[in-house]
Amino acid sequence: MARARLAGAALAMAVVVTTTVACSTDTPPQHKDRLRKAAGVVAFRIVCVKDLWERTSKAKYGDEETINAKVTPGSDGTVTVQLTGPQLVDYLSMLEDRAYNDNPAGDPVQGDPLAYRMYNAIAPVIDKIQTAPAPGQPIPEVRVDYGIGTPAPSPAPRSG
Question: Where does the record locate the signal sequence feature (predicted)?
Fold first, then answer.
């Protein structure tokens, strides 16, 4: 009887460990600190191709909201997006969820590559923020652009 209980407990533990490991994600360990820093900024700018912004900022799931930031078109196919701190928190959370949690193995290759690219471009800039910029100081900015030609919009993903 004791052996049966011990075997049952061992089996239950193995199931818990296997489930935890198999369903774990690789959310960056600094993610919560990034959200705290983002919450404290007055403004944050992202310069990227229009298509990248549109495809990563629109609500994809029922519990998400589209990020409604100030978007200024550039002459080269890019946009300059200005976010408030709370908008940046929402956007980072959305990107993190899509890049790291949209797949069972937590493999960024299987997550949304656009969200992964954007999250990992923004993260180092947020990591460098020490305090809120003094008046007259530049707003933190990230440029997600390799400067190769003028980008053409990629087709929107097909439904179905």
Answer: 1-24
CA distances from 10 to 2, 58, 135 (A): 12, 45, 61
| pLDDT > 90: percent of the chain | 48
DSSP for 10-70, written as a single string: HHHHHHHHHHHHHT-----TTHHHHHHHHHT-S-EEEEEEHHHHHHHHS--STT------E
- Residue 96 backbone phi and psi in degrees, to 5: -60, -45
Torsional sign, CA 113, 115, 117, 119: negative
Helix (H, G, I), strand (E, B) or coil at 74: coil
Radius of gyration of the chain (CA): 20
Q: Are 49 and 151 in contact (CB under 8 A)?
A: yes
Look-up: residue for tokens 């075997």? 7
**Distance (Å, rounded) from C-alpha 96 to C-alpha 34?**
11
- Enumerate the β-bridge partners of residue 156: none
